[in-house]
Amino acid sequence: MFAGALLRRTLPAIGAAAGVLWLVYVLGEAYRFGFDLWPTTTLTGMKAMNLSESDYQSGIGMILNSGERVNETACFGSELRAELERCLDANGAREFFAEIHSGSHFWPTQLVETGIMLAAAGALVRPPSGWCAAVHPDGGQGPSGRLFGHISATTRR
After folding, report:
1. Residue 17 structural domain
2. pLDDT at 1
3. Do 51 and 99 belong to one domain?
């Protein structure tokens, strides 16, 4: 709507609208903030290795013997417990960790993100002037004195 009103040409307006939509998509994926509104759950040990498909990972790695967390996934390909223990010892780590959002966070996050996008869209859109007599400066009457006088007689039936 804005692109059409600004450019007053159909094809450039479609291109501009598609470009803005692409930009919003790219920025939304790069800076997705919805999951930042809910706290993450920290899983340690073998629970961090066996995540369900509905869990959203925000961080995964190893906890070193010093207590420091590093985002190192070298040992995550190991399937046997003995291999995992050797890999942890070789890297100076004591266990695995995973920062996740459980599947139960999905819909509340979607609702919050949708509300934010709707609020942003509502702030950007304003109704066209004269759409309602209550907001029109002369009470909805155009120069001819008729209600919604900007509509010609040939368009009303």
Report:
1. 1-31
2. 55
3. yes
**DSSP class of 156:** -
3-state SS, 8-74, equals CCHHHHHHHHHHHHHHHHHHHHHCCCHHHHCCCEEEEHHHHCCCCCCCEEEEEEEEECCCCEECCCH
pTM for the model stands at: 0.53
| Confidence at residue 19, expressed as pLDDT on a 0 to 100 scale | 93
Mean pLDDT by 10 residues, the chain (157 residues): 74 90 85 74 83 81 86 74 82 87 85 86 70 52 52 52
Please state, in angstroms and rounded to a whole number, the distance separating the CA atoms of residues 106 and 108: 6
Residue 86 is assigned to a structural domain of this protein: yes
Adjacent-strand bridge partners of 96: 62
* pLDDT the model gives residue 31: 74
Asked if residue 99 belongs to a domain, the reply is yes
Residues 48 and 65 in one domain: yes
Q: Where are the beta strands (DSSP E) in 53-129?
A: 56-64, 69-70, 93-101
Q: Answer yes or no: do 46 and 25 share one domain.
A: no
3-state class percentages of the chain: helix first, strand second, coil last, to nearest 5: 45, 15, 40
Write down which residue in 105, 128, 144 finishes a domain.
105
